């Protein structure tokens, strides 16, 4: 699913964000990526999304060498990757229903299919009764659930969650992570970048530790600490 082979990333500033990274995340796997700020987590995500290009090495996502993806092919490539961010990134002038429908509409999903899919997605994340609420009328946890529903609207092969619980209280964080785990159990590969020690220790999935651009620990059923 994801395969980094000796990947290095050096920015124009001279910052070496990733250093000779070798990593494989298999299809259907659940992996936490942890490490301090500046360790390379965000760079890793940007490379997977083809927002950045590796300076050296090879990166395959879903069997595709990202170097072979032309610029005009990037939107189609990203349709198979769902992303959830810490700050939700919802459209503030659209309801929960409209936020999800918009994500489907921009990929030319037929209207009849949208009207069928959106209630199903809202039901999956437990927000069918919030369909007509705007983001300002929802709690942080509810907004993140809408963002999660939007991320899985295209039935992605890979779900990336970048600090998905960073703005949430512990109870709400657990609810969001239970949903992400449920999505993984349905067959979607999941990669979660996080600083949330409690979540990592609770779910006991694979833990990949980054430090100064290098992988320093990679253990199955791991915990946040050593």
Q: Could you write a compact summary of the structure shown?
A:
The chain has helices spanning 41-48, 74-78, 96-105, 111-124, 140-151, 170-185, 197-203, and strands spanning 2-10, 16-25, 30-34, 56-61, 64-65, 81-85, 158-162, 189-193, 206-211, 214-219. With 226 residues, the protein is of the alpha/beta class.
Q: What order do the helices and strands follow? A: EEEHEEHEHHHEHEHEE
Biggest beta-sheet profile: 6 strands, mixed
* Mean of pLDDT: 95
CATH architecture of the domain at 1-80 and 199-226: 3-Layer(aba) Sandwich
Q: Helical region count?
A: 7
Spatial sequence of strands, sheet with the most strands: 6-7-8-3-9-10
Q: Tell me the fraction of residues in β-strands, as a range.
A: 25-35%
Question: How would you sum up the global shape?
Answer: globular
Task: Describe it.
The chain has 226 residues and is α/β, with parallel strands linked by helices. The protein has a domain at 1-80 and 199-226: P-loop containing nucleotide triphosphate hydrolases (Rossmann fold, 3-Layer(aba) Sandwich). Helix content is 32%, strand content 26%. The strands form two sheets. It has a six-stranded mixed beta sheet, sandwiched between helices. A four-stranded antiparallel beta sheet has the order 2-1-4-5, with helices on one face. α3 (96-105) packs across α4 and α4 packs across α5. It is globular, with a radius of gyration of 17 Å. It starts with a strand and ends in a 7-residue tail after the last strand. The model has no long low-confidence stretch (mean pLDDT 95).
């Amino acid at each position: 699913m994801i395969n980094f082979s000796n990947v290095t990333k050096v920015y124009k500033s001279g910052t070496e964000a990733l250093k000779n990274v070798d990593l494989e995340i298999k299809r259907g796997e659940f992996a936490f990526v942890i490490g301090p700020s500046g360790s390379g987590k965000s760079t890793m995500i940007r490379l997977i999304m083809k927002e950045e290009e590796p300076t050296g090495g090879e990166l395959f996502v879903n069997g595709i060498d990202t170097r072979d993806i032309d610029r005009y092919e990037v939107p189609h490539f990203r349709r198979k990757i769902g992303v959830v961010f810490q700050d939700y990134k919802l459209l503030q002038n659209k309801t929960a229903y409209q936020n999800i429908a918009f994500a489907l509409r921009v990929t030319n999903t037929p209207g009849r299919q949208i009207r069928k899919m959106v209630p199903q997605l809202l039901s999956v994340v437990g927000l069918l009764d919030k369909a007509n609420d705007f983001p300002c009328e929802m709690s942080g946890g509810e907004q993140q659930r809408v963002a999660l529903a939007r991320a899985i609207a295209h039935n992605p092969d890979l779900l990336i969650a970048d600090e998905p619980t960073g703005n949430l209280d512990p109870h709400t964080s657990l609810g969001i992570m239970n949903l992400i785990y449920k999505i993984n159990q349905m067959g979607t590969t999941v990669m979660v970048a996080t600083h949330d020690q409690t979540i990592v220790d609770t779910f006991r999935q694979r833990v990949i530790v980054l430090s100064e651009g290098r992988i320093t620990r990679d253990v199955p059923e791991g915990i946040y600490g050593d």
